[in-house]
Fold Winged helix domain-containing protein.
Amino acid sequence: MDTLLTTNWLDANYSYLLAAASQIHDLLALHIAQVENQSFTATEQFCSLAALKDIMPAPPALEQLCNIFHLSEFERNILLLCVAREIIPNFKSLCVKAQGDKQLTLPTFGLARTLFSTFEWAALTHLAPLQHWQLVFVEAGDSIMESTLKIDQRIFYYLLGEPSLDPKLTGILQPIPLAGNDNTSLAASHQLIAEQLAKI
């Protein structure tokens, strides 16, 4: 991608992620309003997710990640529940209010079960993508439903469109320099393809 396209994609990608997280925020706020017998006003959305996706030069990072790891709708929603906790200012207080516990500032499986009609037990296992690929960290609670959920920092940055190296690998990984005419050089046709890919 050239610089302008990259900037446009980054801006649109953030707008997409924020809009998706805002939908989760609204679900949580609606749940609290219903429990408290209060009225509810949804967050104003300037663009629908589909409209944002259509104008982007490349798919949003959220959709790319969901496709790569074959996340179900419920798993996608859990991921967004964790994202909302990171990027929506009052989400922490909503988690506390919805769960009735001042200690529960993070979302839990129980909260996900309450909010999402697509709940599936299989998504909670260590073999399911969220935990298997460490997209989300689960801290054990008194029960499975009280286990708290937190998005992996590198995954969060990926969803924002920002590359992030695992801190454990910093200082260990180094780029391999390519010499001019040794075996590491690419064939001319492959070099052309590599240069075209680098521009995307």
User: Anything to note?
Assistant: The mean pLDDT is 84. The chain has one domain: 9-166. Residues 33 and 40 are 6 Å apart (CA to CA). Residues 9-166 form one domain.
